[in-house]
From TrEMBL:
This is Nit6803 family nitriliase. It comes from the Bacteria. Residues 7-273 form the CN hydrolase domain. GO terms for molecular function: nitrilase activity. InterPro entries: C-N_Hydrolase (IPR003010), C-N_Hydrolase_sf (IPR036526), Nitrilase (IPR023919), Nitrilase/CN_hydratase_CS (IPR000132), Nitrilases_CHs (IPR044149). NCBIfam families: nitrile_sll0784. Belongs to the carbon-nitrogen hydrolase superfamily. Nitrilase family. PROSITE patterns: CN_HYDROLASE (PS50263), NITRIL_CHT_2 (PS00921), PROKAR_LIPOPROTEIN (PS51257).
């Protein structure tokens, strides 16, 4: 691994175009172009940003959210598909690694999916959130361990988790154990209130310290007009407010630029990989600070499938006795009655 390089990274806080996959995708492409002008090599977008995070499920009871859920189906992203092609082309044109959250439609199900594109446009990873949180369980299916993978990119070894997956320490350790150098966090933002942002900051800074890696974290943003689009009940608008923490954290747990907590913007910082060695010299959770003789992680990275194809074992034919081996049955003059 190269621990003597520097990567210029950006975390984007941005509003979607509600109810429009095409409109939100255009905002992603514009942001990539803006980041390219700032010589950014890695850009991270919020959780399920394309077409938009399902805020409706947080403020509507399940019995009333059928229309909104169906609308999300209609606008959802397919992989492969036109959205993937557009982002791939943009990543290649800008020579930029892109991490994008999407609502993925696969057949009759939706998933919270994270996509990592390399700087040549190659889709390096498609992973699904392992356990949707609270209201999200009415919207998305579950992911599997195949996505708990760190990938080699032009910017280094990248891993990604979405929102409250960060509260699963074993999921984080799975990425740490694969020598994650940059961790990409994605949250919805504009939810729950300031306490959500406070918790997010603690979580992101802790992972940076524990993993000895950089964290690039991105959250979404809702305008007052968008809150009205989601629900006309203004009493619910406080739970669609604040909760934003778009930031870049060093392996020492220090913010490398001013975090963005409201409005749209782009947090940009230089990631000096020598800081990874500096941190891990003191505490390497997967090296000299590990005790595999006492504690080990078992990870199942087998993709889920509703059908497993197997080759049936050869069935032995029943043994047939040749007629020549049969003993003749003696005949008698009288047969018993």
């Amino acid at each position: 691994m190269d621990y003597a390089k520097t990567v210029r990274a950006a975390a984007v806080q941005i509003s979607p175009v509600l109810f429009s996959c095409e409109g939100t995708t255009e905002k992603v492409l514009d942001a990539i172009a803006t980041a390219a002008k700032a010589d950014v090599q890695l850009v991270v977008f919020p959780e399920t940003f394309v077409p938009y995070y399902p805020y409706f499920s947080f403020v509507q009871p399940p019995v009333l959210m059928g229309k909104s859920h169906m609308q999300l189906y209609e606008q959802a992203v397919t992989v492969p598909g036109p959205v993937v092609d557009a982002i791939s082309q943009a990543a290649r044109s800008a020579s930029m690694v892109v991490v994008l959250g999407v609502n993925e439609r696969d057949g009759g199900s939706l998933y919270n999916t994270q996509l990592i594109f390399d700087a040549d446009g190659t889709l390096m990873l498609k992973r699904r959130k392992t356990t949707p949180t609270y209201h999200e369980r009415m919207v998305w299916g579950q992911g599997d361990g195949a996505g708990l993978t760190v990938v080699d990119t032009a910017c280094g070894r990248l891993g990604a988790l979405a929102c409250w997956e960060h509260y699963n320490p074993l999921a984080r350790y799975a990425l740490m154990a694969q020598s994650e150098q940059i961790h990409c966090g994605q949250f919805p933002g504009s939810m729950v209130g300031q306490i959500f942002a406070d918790q997010m900051e603690v979580t992101m800074r802790h992972h940076a310290l524990e993993a000895g890696c950089f964290v690039v974290n991105s959250t979404g943003w809702l305008t007052p007009e968008q809150k009205l689009q989601i629900t006309s009940d203004e009493q619910l608008h406080p739970v669609l407010s604040q909760g934003c923490y778009t930031a870049i954290i060093s392996p020492e747990g220090v913010p490398l630029c001013e975090p963005i907590t409201e409005g749209e913007g782009m947090a940009i910082a230089e990631l000096d990989f020598s800081l990874i060695t500096k941190r891990k010299r003191m505490m390497d959770a997967i090296g000299h600070y590990a005790r595999p003789d006492l504690l080990q992680l078992q990870l199942n990275q087998q993709p889920w499938s509703v059908m497993q194809l197997t080759t049936p074992a050869a069935v032995a034919a029943p043994e047939v006795m040749p007629l020549t081996d049969l003993e003749p049955i003696p005949l008698t003059d009288k047969l018993p009655l």
